[in-house]
């Protein structure tokens, strides 16, 4: 008669439990150094520029918008507004072009908001959020590329201005300072539209809301016409409108007039908008579902 031997498995040695497999985590923004952050911004900006290269039609607004605005306003309103300025159509060109420089940044900024919204809809931003990069680098790279588009629009605007008779009474340095001031303010405004693009569900909603904001700001300012003939309540609005400050500062820099406080007010507006909107946009980017 055979006997069956039962083997009892040895007990595991006592001790702390084995740690669970660590989940892959995305590097925190605070752990990424400045050099790495700049490298990430450069790589993402290059990716955005390659997207433009694959879709040249995305540059149509930059290439055509300055031409259309110059021809439309100069030859429709130039005669009457120029006369009110004490001159002719050429006088209005000198008045209009610096104002349009202020407006270019707003229109480019609106495109940033719709682009960010579209990237989220396509899942591009979700892929970026799984990568070990600073969250702000994704948004800053967007702004860097859009500033490049803005410079192209500014160049075409100035060329068209000189073609239709604009005269530069100031210095070349003043012209470059006006372009730089417009770019600084445009970059600040882009943070507002990035936050709008992250908050709205569709690109159409972003564009519609942006137009509701842009129309009063643009036409309730000194961009197109002097504000002296406006009603008193509207003049009070234009006095606090940052676009009026930017347009007046650009005119003074380009035409050699007294700058006054317009430059400082424009820089103050740009700094305040960036300090408030940039952190809100980055926080929204992290939490957006």
TrEMBL record:
Where in this chain does the record put each ABC transmembrane type-2 domain? 57-288
Q: Per UniProt, which keywords does this protein have?
A: Antibiotic resistance, Cell membrane, Membrane, Transmembrane, Transmembrane helix, Transport
Cite the record's Low complexity compositional bias ranges. Answer: 1-13
**Subcellular location, in the record's words?**
Cell membrane; Membrane
Give membrane topology per the record.
Multi-pass membrane protein
The region called Disordered is annotated at 1-22
Q: Which InterPro entries match?
A: ABC2_TM, ABC2_TM_bact-type, ABC_2_transport, Nod_factor_ABC_transporter
Residue ranges annotated as transmembrane are 62-83, 95-117, 138-166, 172-198, 205-225, 263-283
Q: Which family does it belong to?
A: Belongs to the ABC-2 integral membrane protein family.
Provide the protein name.
Transport permease protein
Organism (species):
Streptomyces badius
């Amino acid at each position: 008669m055979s006997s069956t031997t039962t083997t009892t498995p040895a007990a595991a040695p006592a001790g702390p439990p084995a740690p669970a497999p660590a989940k892959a985590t995305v590097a925190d923004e605070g752990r990424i150094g400045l050099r790495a952050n700049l490298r990430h911004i450069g790589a993402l900006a290059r990716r955005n520029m390659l997207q433009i290269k694959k879709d040249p039609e995305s540059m149509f607004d930059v290439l055509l918008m300055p031409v259309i605005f110059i021809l439309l306003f100069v030859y429709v309103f130039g005669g009457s507004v120029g006369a009110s300025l004490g001159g002719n159509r050429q006088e209005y060109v000198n008045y209009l072009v610096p104002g349009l420089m202020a407006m270019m940044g707003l229109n480019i900024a609106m495109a940033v908001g719709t682009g960010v919204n579209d990237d989220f809809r396509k899942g591009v931003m979700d892929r970026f959020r799984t990568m070990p990069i600073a969250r702000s680098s994704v948004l800053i790279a967007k702004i860097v590329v859009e500033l490049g588009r803005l410079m192209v629009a500014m160049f075409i605007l100035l060329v068209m201005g000189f073609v239709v008779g604009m005269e530069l009474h100031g210095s070349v340095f003043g012209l470059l300072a006006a372009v730089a001031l417009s770019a600084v303010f445009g970059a600040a405004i882009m943070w507002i539209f990035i936050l709008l693009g992250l908050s709205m569900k569709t690109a159409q909603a972003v564009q519609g809301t942006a137009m509701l904001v842009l129309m009063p700001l643009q036409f309730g300012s000194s961009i197109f016409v002097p504000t002296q003939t406006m009603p008193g309540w509207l003049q009070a609005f234009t006095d606090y409108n940052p676009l009026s400050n930017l347009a007046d500062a650009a005119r003074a820099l380009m035409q050699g007039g007294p700058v006054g406080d317009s430059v400082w007010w424009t820089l103050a507006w740009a700094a305040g908008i960036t300090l408030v909107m940039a952190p809100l946009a980055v926080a929204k980017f992290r939490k957006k579902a």
